[in-house]
Amino acid sequence: xxxxxxxxxxxxxxxxxxxxxxxxxxxxxxxxxxxxxxxxxxxxxxxxxxxxxxxxxxxxxxxxxxxxxxxxxxxxxxxxxxxxxxxxxxxxxxxxxxxxxxxxxxxxxxxxxxxxxxxxxxxxxxxxxxxxxxxxxxxxxxxxxxxxxxxxxxxxxxxxxxxxxxxxxxxxxxxxxxxxxxxxxxxxxxxxxxxxxxxxxxxxxxxxxxxxxxxxxxxxxxx
Length: 223
Ligand SMILES: NC(=O)c1ccc[n+]([C@@H]2O[C@H](COP(=O)([O-])OP(=O)(O)OC[C@H]3O[C@@H](n4cnc5c(N)ncnc54)[C@H](OP(=O)(O)O)[C@@H]3O)[C@@H](O)[C@H]2O)c1
Known about the structure:
With 223 residues, the chain is an alpha/beta fold. The chain is built from 10 helices and 10 strands. The chain has an 8-stranded mixed β-sheet, with helices on both faces. Strands 6-7 form a two-stranded antiparallel ribbon.
């Protein structure tokens, strides 16, 4: 599968690229094509030295609009605030069957700790906003409760659940497969995209618990 990661120059994007290059061709998308090319080179070096001949894919970089054009899976690894502008730029070029994956968490910090913006300011969940800005596209919401630090450290063994929300069963099956390719991650279907806020809100909760109890990069596992 061709996987493009818009915002792939950030920490989460690096983690996705390093984990999935084992089996897939990855394109890092950035607002600045040269920045994407530089990140892709750096990730490719890390991946090659870790996986050697066991790696089937490659990582390249491009501007985010062209990176989105021929992808089968498009990860939007960008801040909540940039959803509308990004969607406006890419919506016409995305393939009909492309699956859009959102790890986006609308979050900010105040005097009390990290808070979930939609509850504080009566705004929409990231998934809801995406669905509005990419009508008729297949959107799956996932990866809110895994820390970028753990995701990009490919030598660290993971043991976490990933909550998945979406309305198209075929898309959910494909995203679940991708999650399953990352050893130690288990996909757990939460329900329709309209329930994505229940997964998104867990990120500020994890960060508050992490800070107050000095637990580094916590995740969630249901038992
Ligand atoms: N970090 C975590 O541990 C974690 C965990 C779970 C979920 N998430 C969510 O996953 C998403 C990505 O996380 P991240 O920490 O990798 O994010 P990030 O580093 O803040 O941003 C990722 C990339 O988005 C692009 N970007 C930044 N500001 C932008 C803007 N105003 N308009 C358009 N693009 C912009 C930048 O790429 P270019 O400059 O190259 O365009 C940046 O490298 C976020 O929504 C975050 O809430 C993060």
